[in-house]
Amino acid sequence: MSPVDGAGASNPNLPVDRAVTVGREPSSSPEQIPQLSEVDCPAELKERIEALMARYPDRKSASIPALWAVQERYGWCTPEGIRQAAAVMRVTPAYLESVASFYDLLHTERVGEHRIEVCTNISCWMRGGDELLDAFRAAAEGEDIFVTGFECLGACDIAPMAAIDQRYFGPLVPGEAKTAIDQLLSGDAVLPEKSLEKRPLAGDTEVQR
Amino acid sequence: MSSEKREVTLTIDGREVTAIEGEMLHDAARKGDVEIPVFCYEPKLGAPVGACRMCLVEVEGIPKLQTSCSTPVRDGMVVHTRTDQVKKAQNAVVEFLLVNHPLDCPVCDKGGECPLQDVTQGWGPGKSRVIDEKRHFEKPIELSPLVAIDRERCILCYRCVRFSQEVSEDAQLQLLDRGDRTYVGTFDDRPYVSPFHGNITDLCPVGALTNYTYRFRARPWDIEQAGSVCTLCPSQCNVSFTVRDEKVKRVIVRDNPGVDDGWICDRGRYGFEMFGAAERVTEPRLKGGDKVSYEDAIARAAKGLAARDGKVAALVGDASNEEGFLVGEIVRGALHSPHLDSRPAAGPGIDTILGLARPELQAAVPDIDEADVILVLGTDPMQSSPILDLRIRKAIRRNGARLVVATERPTALDGGAEAIARFAPGQAAHFVGELTAAIGGAENVATPLAESLRDASKVVVVWGERLGPAATAELLNFVDAFDTKNAGTDVDGPKTQDGLEFSAHQHVGLLEVPEVANARGLREAGVLPDAGPGLAALALNGHGTEEIREALIDGSLDGLILVGVDPLRDFADTARWEEALNAASFIVAFSTFTTATAAKADVLFPLETHAEKDGTVTHPDGRLQRVRPAAGRPGDIRPGWQTLSQLSLALGHDTGITSQPTAFAALTAAVPFYASITDKSIGGRGIRWQETESAANLPNSATDAGAASADTQRVSASDEAVPVAGALALGTYRDLWAGPITELNPPLKFLKPSQRLELSPEDAARLSLDSGDTVRVTQGDKSLEATVAIRERVPEGVCFLAEGIAGANANSLLNGHQVSVQIEKLSEVPA
Amino acid sequence: MPHALETRVLLDKAEDPRLATLQGYKDLVGGYATLEKAYKSMEQDEVLKELEDSGLRGRGGAGFSMGKKASFLPRGDMNKYLCCNADESEPGAFKDRELMQRNPHQLVEGIAIAALAADAGHAFIFIRGEYDSQADTLDAAVAEAYEAGYLGKDILGTHRDLELVVHRGAGAYICGEETALLDALEGKRGNPRLKPPFPAVQGLYGGPTLINNVETLSNVPRIVANGAEWFRQYGTEQSPGTKVVSISGGVRRPGNYEISLGLPTRDLIYELAGGPLPGRTVKAIYPGGSSSPVLKASEAMDLPYSFEAMAEAGSMLGSGSVIVADDRVSIPHMALRTARFYHHESCGKCTPCREGTNWTVKMLERVVRGEATPMDLDIISSVQENIMGKCLCVLGDSMAMPVSAMVRKFRGEFEAVMAEAAEGIDPHTIIDASPEALEAALEATS
Ligand SMILES: Cc1cc2nc3c(=O)[nH]c(=O)nc-3n(C[C@H](O)[C@H](O)[C@H](O)COP(=O)(O)O)c2cc1C
Ligand code: SF4
Ligand code: FES
After folding, report:
1. Which of B468, B537, B565, B566 is most buried (most C-beta within 10 Å)?
2. Predicted confidence (pLDDT) at residue B1 exceeds the cutoff of 70
3. What is the pLDDT of residue B122?
4. Is A12 on the interface with B (CB under 8 A)?
5. C195 touches chain A (CB under 8 A)
6. Minimal Cα–Cα distance from C233 to chain A, Å?
7. Is C194's CB within 8 Å of B181's CB?
8. Contact B534, B324 (CB under 8 A)
């Protein structure tokens, strides 16, 4: 325990709590609902959040969409971005941060320019999801790409699979990780033939041997 | 509002229990002496959340175990709380809670008074099967400068965050992350600062949230708890002092739904740390600081005062009913002077006071819970009576009460209001008049508010003494504008918990937020220029506060008794008060701390704090409460009643008061509407005199109610601010944190306010000011420095400064008239 | 061409990409004719009756009668809401995704008609944030429907209004739980609420709220168009209709297959999904998503795939998602994956789920590391029992049920894996299902 925590008028073995004799200062200022004039919210973001709020009977319903908007704008839910959204929504930044921190797709810390989620849940794990994740991690080494293992993405039919910037690809073999990342970095279409959108209905695939 | 509550009978563990329909099983069980363990359940926090699952019980006919905290009782229900199935569930939940809870009880501050410890012993499995690693956090860290958080100990009961969301509504304390990674925290790790945040340390059922002011300072077995009343503001919350070695170590809540709902503000919680300040006056002193014995001091005071017989006045502020009563005895009885007041500025005349004191007009605090519409008029409860702020929020949140706000300055409650009116400083009387007319149907500025009020069946008006005498007098007309026929009768009698039944007619109840904590008690004890004890008319009226000041300056008064007042900080027109105090040839002061005012005293007596005092106070709603001595008096401090009665005796006027009981007896004998109140009937929760048989003894007003005639209207037309180029009308307010509470109290020092000039964005733009700029604010030949704070809800043309700020006190710019100020930028906010 | 054992109703013409557009939906399957009929000529009670009579059971997991649930909503002037649960996050489930991406208008039409039954003026589709492309598809479909007057104010001049908003979640399985969904939709953390009150009485914004799964609502247009009797020609007495079943794991052709409920499980796995991978055999299945108690292959194959048969066998049909574990899958590792998922997704609000999932993961980790004893298996089982029936919602049970089933049915394997791991042997857990490996395996077996 650090000296400032303990106190001990009664226990001579404990240091005296300086809070009592001197008082402590907060390390920064507390954060209540910021006024719009304080936060410098880009007009476009403000309008977008206002439009989102208008979609719902209760403006607070827009908190997840508003956080998506912040994330889209800044790459992640930055404290400044959260404060801007909070000022527009008239809620505390703490409230929005609490919401953001609950959800796996909203990031309260900086993530890379691109995001890759690799499913490691049951069906993908059975078909090599862990290895695929390792391959993506290795391929993304040193790049501004955020790679993470993820719970079931709802695409076990293309296991093992990955979501690359919110689009689904599979079934993938580890070797395709490098290809995908190269394509991503060079701006080319990523693994076009592995895109979920291109996949025929299961029952219509040519019956395999 | 459900007015009829049926009783139901159910069986709990074979015992028949009678409960109120809708009541939760857990509470009903308690009535049958069956204890069901809980963690997350705390009715003060609102609807149960059923999260911790500690309270599972078996209800016959339902296959799954039910959470007794959230299951309402039904007639004929059969409940078991000790079956094997229930025991297994209880063991399971305790075991789960301990999966991540560290076993550091020996070094934990909660040890010995820890609900988790108690429940584990009473309902746990007795042994642990967990050998896996527990979760780790940095421990403990600063949640605020006053509260430490040890996240490893947290059992995620969410009481603290629910407090922040649903009681104080600051929404600063939140859950972060998810699942078992969840932790309690704030935005960007900033400190949790809200005027109520200390309550979370009372709520936390483990040692996760502890007060820095109490950590390691005592153990449950070497402390005593002493119930008393906090008199640091008019809320008069019920508190319990944790005392060790005769010293207060902690202040915790002592639930009283009639007063505080089980909460206290941080002022009341941490204020005790100033009791031992070096600035404390701990023995009688003479001017210049020489210490003297009580006997000597009393003799000197008596001599000095006697010499000015008939020319002595008294001002009383922080004092008990008995002390106020005794000052009256001294001034009127011993010194033959009628000049006595307990208000910082001119107040309404006795007719208005009597009119407003009518029991049927008096709202009690719990009436707020049941109101249809609450009108907050001329006060910001957050600054002046913080617990009422929480109470009003609760009424809106839980009972759907509607709120309308009419103030000069934006209030903390604005966000929840359906209509807001801002009147200009000095225009309160005019505004209340308009509102009255609007209730009657007139179309004017107050019409939007009147629309909210007009059809409400129960209106509670929370109004501030700061409205001033003319507006206060106008309140009686305002009440008359409502259709209250037949309604009053419901309110007269004692109230049941179930609330009132309303007739079709409206009922309007008024609740004052006075300027000092015991304002009502002092008035009723006779500390008024135009009424004696019991608000009785006097043969000869004396001067009020401001007239006393002028009389001292012009020499018609000569001696002054000051009890618990600090005019040089707290009263308007500092310079004139300085002049008056210098003009007085003899001053006897009673003061807790050495202040600039106290330094002017020829004889200075110490005052007790509310932790040391024995006496009664009267809540603004008429509730007499007992302040009980909890701690020892430091130094050579004697009880205030004792000193005052001895002084009276020394002046040849024997009050017969020789003890607190005799002082109380003298008070109740002198105040007819207190007559049937006894120490016993006050008990631990106080008693409202309106609800006793003596209520009928309230005198009728001499003139007709509503007579504004006798009152001085301070703001005459000519006072209205003449717009000068660049000048703004000045409004002032009391800041919750201004004064000794932060200046002499190390743990609260960080809250010490500096002077802020609040103004509208429009005016700021016009004056090229930014938030954070330093400005000089000038009124005539007086000025002070302040930091600009742009506030979106401040109307154009006005600005606000706080009173009581050391070194830049807004009181120094005031002169009893409406003033406007010039603003000059000194430096820009550093970019 | 669909397999002969498939019965395509919801996926009718789904192979045609034009179906995702309003025009395609109209041209290919006569879309929006039912909406028009319902809005112009049907009363709330008629729609309700059709739905109740059809016996349509919820496709989101609990299998509760949809018509009955809709009839629980109180009548009156208060605002009522309809929420389509498109959160689909349970491991093994991906059928809603297919329905939304291939036939979004069917869902929009279903919602509009169900809104009549619920007298709801505001509807929301809560779609998991990961389904970004599907949400885009829905957004486009909703916009088209507004444009065409099927949504919005005064629909088709009938003086009936319906606002429909596509609301994207942000990655939390718990939001699929109906009350957590409501909290998330209200802009909060997605924590489940105490029940009662049930959403039908007090749901979104405190108003009566009907919550149904994507597939449930997608069934609505055809039922209202063709009548309850038509619907009941498919499926069994207690499980009428067709079901889109997601099959994944150790099968040759993972994917969504629409069947008439009651089809033998064996046909589902062997005929439609092509059976286990070459050289493998089926060891166990989750018959209804990762929360359903695992069935040994020997228990499962002869069961009709229906709500009642699965319940009788001690498991459940759930969302209708079959995960196949073949003989080389280590069950303790599968139990750990399962537990990890629920641990990661537990919202943390109630104690048994929050701490129980966390503790179970720690114990299973010890099992696969070889640091546990058989006594730990007893503790694991007892902890599952301590979770079941004691939580605020059923997420905790969703882990406890499959995990306890696995420990009970495969105890020998748990002990063996523990022993092997203690000696440093890593049990084989991975199926190499890359096309190359598949090719090689096929060659080896042929
Ligand atoms: C933890 C949990 C997750 C759930 N996830 C989903 C889901 O993703 N989609 C869904 O439709 N129902 C889900 N449900 C079931 C819903 O609570 C609810 O029963 C369903 O949406 C009702 O729709 P239905 O009657 O049409 O099935 C989940 C339930 C639980 C307890
Ligand atoms: S810190 Fe205390 S009050 Fe807050 S959630 Fe944890 S245990 Fe409960
Ligand atoms: S006390 Fe009932 S669930 Fe927590």
Report:
1. B565
2. no
3. 94
4. no
5. no
6. 22
7. no
8. no
Output the domain CATH number for residue A161: 3.40.30.10
Q: Are strands B774-779 and B782-790 parallel, antiparallel or unpaired?
A: antiparallel
**Ligand 1 centre distance from Cα of residue A71 (Å):** 28
What is the distance in A from the centroid of ligand 3 to the CA of B93?
A: 11
Whether B227 and B684 have beta carbons less than 8 Å apart is answered as yes
**Residues B31 and B18 sit within 8 Å (Cβ to Cβ):** yes
Query: CATH: 1.20.1340.10, 3.90.1150.10, 1.20.1440.230, 3.40.50.150. Which one for C331-422?
Result: 1.20.1440.230
In this structure, the residues whose C-beta lies within 6 A of any atom of ligand 1 are C 58-62, 64, 66, 85, 87-90, 174, 176-178, 211-213, 216, 393-395, 398
Residues whose CB falls within 8 Å of the CB of residue C75, separated by 6 or more in sequence, listed in order: C119
- The SS3 assignment for B760 reads coil
CB contact (8 A) between residue B792 and residue A37: yes
Q: Are B305 and B589 contacting, i.e. CB atoms less than 8 angstroms apart?
A: no
pLDDT at B162 over 60: yes
Q: Which of B96, B135, B155, B203 to mutate to test the pocket of ligand 2 (most atoms within 8 A of CB)?
A: B155
B100 to chain C: which residues are within 8 Å by CB? 355, 358
Percent of all residues in chain B with a pLDDT value above 70, rounded to a whole number: 94
Q: Cα(B29)–Cα(C390) distance, rounded to whole angstroms?
A: 20
- Tens digit of pLDDT for each residue in A61-103? 999 999 999 999 999 999 999 999 999 999 999 999 999 999 9
* Residue B425 to residue B407: CA distance in whole angstroms: 9
Dist. CA B613–CA B320, nearest whole Å: 9
- For chain B, list the domains and their CATH numbers: 285-345+517-610+631-672 (3.40.50.740), 352-491+498-513 (3.40.228.10), 722-827 (2.40.40.20)
Instruction: Provide the residue range defining the domain that includes A182.
Output: 114-196
Mean pLDDT along residues A34-42:
91
The band of B103, judged by pLDDT with boundaries at 50, 70 and 90, is confident
What is the CATH class of C242-326? alpha beta
Q: What is the pLDDT of residue C427?
A: 63
Evaluate whether residue A15 is within a structural domain: no
Interface test with B, best of C179, C198, C351 (most B CBs within 10 A): C351
- Which of A67, A102, A137 is the C-terminal boundary of a domain? A102
pLDDT grade for B215, boundaries at 50, 70 and 90: confident
Q: Does B25 touch chain C (CB under 8 A)?
A: no
Residue ranges per structural domain of chain C: 17-232, 242-326, 331-422
> Would an 8 Å CB–CB cutoff place A186 in contact with chain B?
no
Residue A157 lies in a domain: yes
Closest CA to ligand 2's atom 2: B204
What is this structure's pTM? 0.93
Q: Which of B44, B151, B159, B167 to mutate to test the pocket of ligand 2 (most atoms within 8 A of CB)?
A: B159
Do the beta carbons of residue B449 and residue B419 sit within 8 Å?
A: yes
A197 to chain C, any CB pair closer than 8 A? The answer is: yes
Distance B24 CA to ligand 3 centre (A): 11
What single letter denotes the amino acid at residue C342? Answer: Y
Q: What is the crossing angle of helices A129-140 and A175-186, to 10°?
A: 40
Query: With the C-alpha atoms ordered B672, B675, B679, B682, is the resulting torsion angle positive or negative?
Result: negative
The torsion of the CA quartet B397, B403, B407, B410, rounded to 10 degrees, works out to: 40
> What is the CATH number for A59?
1.10.10
Whole-number percent of chain C with pLDDT over 90: 93
In tens, the pLDDT along B505-519 reads 689 999 999 999 999
Nearest to C90, CA basis, from C398, C407, C400: C398
Residue in C347, C357, C362 nearest the CB of B132: C362
B187–chain A nearest CA distance, Å: 4
Contact A97 B217 (CB under 8 A): no
**pLDDT of B467 above 80:** yes
Architecture per CATH, domain C17-232, reads as 3-Layer(aba) Sandwich (3.40)
Taking an 8 Å cut-off on Cβ atoms, the answer to whether A63 and C187 are in contact is yes
